[in-house]
Amino acid sequence: MKKIACLLLLFVAFQASAQEFHFIPKIGLNFANMTNFEGSMKPGLNIGVAGEVMMTDHFAIEPGLFYSMQGAKNDQLVDMKVKNDYLNIPILFKGYVYEGFNLFAGPQLGFKVSSKVKISNSGTSVSTSELSDAFKSVDFALVIGAGYQSSMGLLFSLSYNIGLANVLDADKLASMSGVSEVKGEKCRNGVLQFNVGWRF
Question: Tell me, what's the pLDDT at 16?
Fold first, then answer.
């Protein structure tokens, strides 16, 4: 509750010193993976809302709150699918470089809200949420990207979330799942995102 109150105060402080404020709901497609997972990217959705605070005519700060479906697929040593859903809070610094074209970057804090692992090994398939404890509850990433904001309100963006934190307790996953190949591994999230939205 205190964190939400602090975020609201931050919004008010930004809006008081800014030229204008925009409300931006967004939805998009994720292609997620984790480093050292030796697999293919996992598709998913992300949906949420951002607030664009125009500090000058060409520079804005954009905090947001998004539900993001992430994870990875490992089909090399063992067939394993990880579905980790996060509540992500990015704070982006956006520069409008030419008309509606913009570049942005900034930190992102993520909180795991659900996790499910499906493992198929030697003809046996197990799907469980009990392995959720093997994935850490907090993630931290750097977001970089580019977008286009039309004058009518429609926007498009392409971004990549570079995971900076190890989100896997590999030894715990190995002991809980019986898959010894994952011992000692460190995994960081990586998410390619295509988004569309509308700026009010």
Answer: 46
Q: What does the alpha-carbon distance between residue 36 and residue 173 come to, in Å, rounded to a whole number?
A: 14
Residue 166 DSSP class: -
Model pTM?
Answer: 0.83
1-25 core/surface letters (b: 16 or more CB in 10 A; e: else): eeeeeeeeeeeeebeeebeeebebe
What number of other Cβ atoms are within 10 A of residue 100's Cβ? 15
CATH number of the domain enclosing 79: 2.40.160.20
Q: How many domains does the chain have?
A: 1
For the segment 95-138, what is each residue's pLDDT rounded down to a tens digit?
999 999 999 999 999 999 998 888 776 655 555 666 677 889 99
**Tokens 């509750």 label which residue?**
1
CA distances from 173 to 6, 16, 129, 136 (A): 35, 48, 12, 11
DSSP code per residue over 53-86 = EESSSSEEEEEEEEEEEEEEEE-SSSEEEEEEEE
User: Which range marks the domain in which residue 22 is found?
Assistant: 2-198
